[in-house]
Sequence to fold (329 residues):
Amino acid sequence: MKAFFNLIRWQNLLIVASTMILMRYAILAPLVSKMGVVLINNGNREPVPMVLQFPWYDFIFLVIATLFITAGGYVINDYFDIKTDLINKGKVIVGTKIPRRQAMMWHNIFNIIGVSLGFYVSWSAGYIWLGTFFLIVSGLLYFYSASYKRQFLIGNIVVALLTAMVPILVVFYEWPALYRYYKINAISMPEINFIFYWIGGFGLFAFLTTLTREIIKDIEDFEGDVAFGRNTVPIVIGVLSAKIVSVSLIVLTITMLYLSWHFFINDKITLIYLNAAIVLPLLFTIYKVIISKDKKQLHSASSIMKIVMLSGLLYSVVVKVILTWNFIS
Fold:
């Protein structure tokens, strides 16, 4: 049982679920509640706060669908990475603790459930065509493991894009529900496109930090990737150039964080959190990447990037506090 949970990366699945829950209840819900609307059936014509309209039970199905697709991706990744993982990590799960045939069975089960739930949620939301997204993602995860991750930069970008889509999925399903309800039941429909900017910011942060971490991991796995002819970034352009790319991406991330704070947020609580929980660890990551001479130091840099990604997610809790108690100063 322990091997099974390690195979599906239960800690990462917990982060995926937490991401979607926080995007809905720590970002969307408080943002939407700040918008006042006059409902047609409200006799006194007093504005009332907007509330989320995508049903909570459909949201649960959306989260579960995403988790199953993600778990399937982890299984197929380990299925195709047995030989390289033996060199890079010294141990594998598929082929030792879990038979290859059983791993493929779990991959198929997870994808069937995930895609089916994705189509159900999309149908319930009134946009059944959105279900094709889950089908496409399951295919991308398969081909990523089978082929894309062996190609220059393509695999890194695919993983980064799919990670960025996790928070964005939440607003994709909430926005149509909000628009349909208040277009009919409110005297005038307020502008709600701003919720895309907020969630999009989290998605962009997830993209940049994931892309950076994937490149650092490729540098760490250089030995095993060379042995099996993979064309990863450090193999194609060299380890030093790959380090320069990863450091440049971190600098770009820091720059965009400060620009976003200056032009769109500009409150002291966010600045304090940004400096302490995100920027300082990113600067330390730059230091670790520059001085790294072995896999242990690179693994440390990769682990710090994962902490940074978690800190970025937890900023949603800070937003919730700021909006709920009006701590903007």
